[in-house]
Design a protein that fits this description.
The chain is mainly alpha-helical and about 80 residues long. Helix content is about 35%, strand content about 0%. It contains four helices and no strands. The protein is flat. The termini are far apart.
Length: about 80
């Protein structure tokens, strides 16, 4: 059997690139609801770094922005289908 060197080994994940550093974001604003909704699953939970590929710096900003948007009523705490 010939091994394909371009295929990652079992258990090794492909490293994801941070969407915010690629787009030259300086700060994640809580008023940009369209951006924040991409990082929330269907239940309303914040997606972790290992799933989204965001850097640690922007994941902290993202968490803070989502929490602020929820407090201001821009984003729901829980999805409609769970209420």
């Amino acid at each position: 059997m010939i091994k394909n060197p371009s295929h990652p080994k079992k258990g090794h994940l492909k490293t994801k690139e941070c969407r915010f550093t690629r787009s030259n974001f300086v700060y994640i604003d809580y008023k940009e609801v369209e951006v924040l909704e991409r990082f929330i699953n269907d239940q309303g939970k914040i997606l972790p770094r290992r799933v989204t590929g965001t850097s640690a710096k922007f994941q902290r900003q993202l968490n803070k922005a989502i929490r602020r948007a929820r407090f201001m009523g821009l984003l729901p705490y829980v999805a409609e289908n769970i209420r």
